[in-house]
Design a protein that fits this description.
By secondary structure, this protein is an alpha+beta fold. The protein has two domains: 154 residues, GAF domain (Beta-Lactamase, 2-Layer Sandwich), CATH 3.30.450; 122 residues, no CATH class. It is built from nine helices and four strands, in the order H-H-E-E-E-E-H-H-H-H-H-H-H. A four-stranded antiparallel beta sheet has the order 2-1-4-3, covered by helices on one side. A hairpin with a 2-residue loop joins strand 1 and strand 2. The radius of gyration is 48 Å and the shape is rod-shaped. The model has no long low-confidence stretch (mean pLDDT 83).
């Protein structure tokens, strides 16, 4: 009987020890399970924040508003958690937000300057953990959230600045184009004015002198005329097609036709017959592709630069 009683007592002690270990393991399991759930919540928060930033890559307002919805559910006590984000003049907060003594904060730094902060508050007192009532993992989480917000804000700001600079460059290019076009128009106007005065005042004198000069004097007159053309050539572009098609004599006849000289008067000034001038007129019309067209040659030559 004695041996049997001792054996039974030993079995009871062993059983109690096993029961105690089981309880301890169950408690440790519960702690580990709780920690695992918290880590899953934190990872889910960062994942959702990443997707939020990707979806709203051009809107900081939507990113901050969406982050406010993510924060409370990611902390240990979501039912008593509220959050607020301040960034420059922007403020976003949960509907139940109330500033309390139980809070965590993380600054938002942009280029070394604090531009705002992320805040998480508990509305009731909770047991002390690693940082007041907060876990050390929650400190890592709020720091990661503020860092991602800072990067998103900096990227959006950079993109907007680039858009402003691109638009400014487009505006500058457009203004330069307009300025060049205006300069070209003014240049043409100056050239046309110069050409008109030369055609009206100088050229008739040349034609009159040609009829009175000998061959030696005509060489100087032609040289003077060429030098005059060289002077005004940078300003005058509209007649280059005509110049490339017509001979020097035909150009002179064109100038006289353009300024209203009749065929007989042109023939008298050049010392040739009217038939010769008529042949020049036919050649001019052919080279300007207006043969057999009901086009007045005088009007055509005066309006050529506008076509």
């Amino acid at each position: 009987m004695k041996n049997s009683t001792e054996c039974s007592t030993g079995s009871c002690e062993e059983l109690e020890l096993l029961r105690s270990k089981l309880v301890s393991l169950q408690q440790e399991y519960q702690v580990r399970e709780l920690q695992l759930r918290e880590r899953i919540k934190e990872l889910a928060c960062l994942y959702k924040l990443t997707k939020l930033i990707e979806k709203n890559e051009n809107s900081l307002d939507k990113i901050l508003q969406g982050t406010i919805a993510l924060l409370p559910e990611s902390w240990q006590y979501p039912e008593i958690t509220c959050a607020r984000i301040r960034y420059r003049e922007l403020v976003f907060q949960s509907s139940n937000f109330k500033s309390t003594q139980w809070r965590q904060k993380a600054p938002i730094f942009i280029s070394g300057l604090q531009e705002g902060e992320v805040e998480v508050h508990y509305l009731k007192k909770k047991p002390r953990q690693d940082e007041g009532p907060f876990l050390k993992e929650e400190r890592l989480l709020i720091d990661a959230v503020s860092n991602r917000i800072a990067k998103a804000a900096e990227r959006i700001s950079t993109q907007r600045q680039l858009q402003v600079e691109r638009q400014a460059l487009r505006d500058a290019n457009a203004a330069l184009h307009d300025s060049l076009a205006q300069s070209h128009r003014e240049k043409n106007m100056v050239g046309e004015s110069i050409q008109a005065k030369i055609d009206k005042i100088i050229i008739p004198i040349f034609y009159a002198l040609q009829a009175e000069m000998n061959s030696s004097q005509l060489e100087y007159l032609e040289l003077l005329q060429k030098n005059l053309e060289d002077i005004i050539s940078p300003f005058v572009e509209r007649d280059r097609v005509v110049i490339s098609k017509l001979s020097p004599i035909e150009l002179q006849v064109c100038n006289m036709i353009k300024h209203g000289f009749p065929t007989k008067e042109i023939a008298r000034i050049r010392g040739v017959s009217p038939a010769t001038i008529n042949r020049h007129r036919e050649n001019i019309r052919r080279k300007l592709s207006i043969t057999n067209r009901k086009v007045n040659l005088t009007s055509y030559l005066n309006n050529f630069g506008d076509e």
